[in-house]
Amino acid sequence: MLKDSYGRYINNLRISVTDRCNFRCSYCMPEEGMVWMNKSELLTYEEIARITGIFAGLGITKIRLTGGEPLMRKDLHILVHMLAEVAGIKDLAMTTNGFFLNERAELLAKAGLKRINVSLDSLEALKFKEITRRDYLNRVLNGLETITSYGIRPVKINMVVMRDINDDEVTEFAILARTKPYVIRFIEFMPIGNNDGWRNEKVVPSKDIRERIERDLNLKLIPVEYHGTQPSDRYVFDDGHGEIGFISSVSEPFCEHCNRVRITSDGKLRTCLFSHHETDLKQLVRSGVDNDGIRKVIIDAVWKKEEGHLINRPEFVRPARTMSQIGG
Ligand code: SAM
Ligand code: SF4
């Protein structure tokens, strides 16, 4: 199994399939001026499947496809099918903005997608438009309904909570977790990319969100027993209806339990979202290095995985790439 020098076992790989996106979420990328990678720079589906096979041989069991917007990539269900066939992959998931789900849900479900996370930061049309710079709230809500109708479970909604922007909606989202078959995950706003508008004051600590929801709904949240190394702290309501989760990267970093690494759409292995160092797997694949050679490079890179991010420390420096270029 893949192990780093801090004794953490790595079984989770996030694969970005494109840096492109049809949204322009203010915290993720600037409104204009994004320069996209050339198609030839992106890993092909065959290359992604080969690299996934090598990772699976090293103990990776969980794959998440992301981007940019992964469904901007043509016929993504073909890749999903290829990855679902890789021996050892037990969990195949995707994070998406939900825009294309209406049309693509059936193909994705049939191809073997097991789980999905849809990003949604506001249930109010105007605010949704302000945050994403697109007027697509209804499409995303319809996409959520469609994917749910194909039996994919759990459907999770990722909400990035930002003070004085959308934190007034956390209880509305929690209610959604009680009335729909969705799990809501509240994500702390993270400093990543240079144009994200991040300031420490904009972060709403998970504890405050939890307390606010309990107060507003007059219910208690009970922690779900912690299994494995998922970054989200899971809670259920004490009346048995609804589950929510918290990703508290800023206020309660979970680096100690981190079990994941990432591959960017141009084939760079990153051992942390906040890494300043990447290992070029695409170059190895395209220069004819065999699987054994690539395996050795992966083992060596993972061994050097960072102890943790430094967000709360003065020496913290944001990565040069935006979240959409790294793969969120
Ligand atoms: N386009 C897809 C989507 O939006 O779901 C996948 C890529 S997106 C970069 C992945 C996740 O990263 C989304 O849930 C998004 O909200 C989150 N994200 C992006 N920038 C962030 C930031 N600065 N802080 C916290 N989460 C962020
Ligand atoms: Fe696109 Fe996702 Fe970034 Fe929003 S968060 S701009 S949907 S990649």
Detailed description of the structure:
The protein is α/β, with parallel strands linked by helices and 328 residues long. The chain has ten helices and 14 strands. Helix 1 runs parallel beside helix 2 and helix 2 runs parallel beside helix 3. The strands form two sheets. Strands 9-10-11-8-7-6-5-4-3-12-13-14 form a twelve-stranded mixed sheet. Strands 1-2 form a two-stranded antiparallel ribbon. Strand 1 and strand 2 form a beta hairpin. The chain has helices at 45-57, 76-84, 101-111, 125-132, 137-149, 170-179, 206-217, 281-286, 291-303, 323-326; strands spanning 2-3, 9-10, 12-16, 62-66, 91-96, 115-119, 155-161, 182-188, 221-223, 233-237, 243-247, 260-263, 268-270, 279-280. Helices cover 30% and strands 19% of the residues. The radius of gyration is 19 Å and the shape is globular. It has a single domain, classed as Alpha-Beta Barrel (TIM Barrel), CATH 3.20.20.70. Iron/sulfur cluster is lined by residues 21, 23-25, 28-29, 67-69, 97, 119, 323-324.
The tally of beta strands, per DSSP, is 14
According to CATH, what is the class?
Alpha Beta
CATH topology: TIM Barrel
Give the spatial strand order of the biggest sheet. Answer: 9-10-11-8-7-6-5-4-3-12-13-14
The secondary-structure element order is EEEHEHEHEHHEHEHEEEEEEHHH
Number of helices: 10
Mean pLDDT across all residues, rounded?
94
